[in-house]
């Protein structure tokens, strides 16, 4: 479990900020981990704000909701810079589903941390093809603390780091359908990709005749 090196912004000292990133595949519990950290800060009466991309409307527009239904109120925004003003008076800022924001998120997180805010970012590190997702690689580089959480492979029970898409859609952002994905380990993810390629080739061949 992640243990913060320091969580107090002692009244007598100038506030010091930093960036924490929590990444993993779908079903890895990264949102739960974000909520755990934020709730602990709230209990300590720190000022907390939570933001998420406006396009993620899978559950409730106002809540960061994880799959296990532990939820916390959040503000949907279209662009990262929209959080600068409301976040500047906070001790802690949480950002969920960060992979859907554009690259400017990195600069915004840096600015907040530079101004004494503790920034906690959660997001998918890879898309359904196993490619680094949106601003996440750059965020991982600039963060002081990185936590990679894992799911369990539905095929073999190994540690899973991939979000395998069960449907053939080629859009990077496919929302609303957690049923369309399953967590897989490297081996089973690769097998699934190869099966799909083989199937695609067979369909293309059949169409020729
Ligand atoms: Zn597996």
Automatic annotation (TrEMBL):
SUPFAM superfamilies: Glucocorticoid receptor-like (DNA-binding domain), P-loop containing nucleoside triphosphate hydrolases. Zn(2+) binds at residues 153, 156, 185, 188. Homotetramer. Substrate binds at residues 173-176, 181. The active site is at residue 97. PROSITE patterns: TK_CELLULAR_TYPE. It comes from Hymenobacter edaphi. The gene is tdk. It is an enzyme of class 2 (transferase). GO terms for molecular function: ATP binding; thymidine kinase activity; zinc ion binding. Belongs to the thymidine kinase family. It catalyses: thymidine + ATP = dTMP + ADP + H(+). It is found in: Cytoplasm. InterPro entries: P-loop_NTPase, Thymidine_kinase, Thymidine_kinase_CS. This is Thymidine kinase. GO terms for biological process: DNA biosynthetic process; thymidine metabolic process. Its EC number is 2.7.1.21. One of its GO terms (cellular component) is cytosol. Keywords: ATP-binding, Cytoplasm, DNA synthesis, Kinase, Metal-binding, Nucleotide-binding, Transferase, Zinc. ATP binds at residues 24-31, 96-99.
């Amino acid at each position: 479990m992640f243990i913060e090196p320091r969580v107090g912004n002692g009244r007598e000292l100038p506030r010091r900020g930093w960036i924490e990133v929590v990444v993993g595949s779908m079903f890895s519990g990264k949102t739960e981990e974000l909520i755990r950290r934020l709730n602990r800060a709230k209990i300590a009466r720190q000022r907390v704000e939570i933001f998420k991309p406006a396009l993620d409307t899978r559950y409730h527009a106002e809540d960061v909701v994880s799959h296990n239904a532990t939820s916390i109120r959040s503000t949907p925004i279209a662009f990262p810079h929209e959080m600068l003003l409301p976040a500047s008076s906070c001790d802690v800022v949480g950002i969920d589903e960060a992979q859907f924001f554009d690259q400017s998120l990195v600069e915004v997180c840096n600015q907040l941390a530079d101004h004494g805010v503790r920034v906690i970012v959660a997001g998918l590190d890879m898309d359904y093809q196993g490619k680094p997702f949106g601003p996440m690689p750059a965020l991982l580089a600039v963060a002081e603390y990185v936590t990679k959480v894992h799911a369990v492979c539905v095929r073999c029970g190994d540690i899973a780091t991939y979000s395998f898409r069960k449907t053939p859609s080629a859009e990077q952002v496919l929302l609303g359908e957690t049923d369309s994905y399953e967590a897989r380990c490297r081996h089973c993810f690769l097998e699934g990709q190869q099966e799909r390629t083989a199937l695609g080739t067979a369909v293309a061949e059949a169409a020729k005749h």
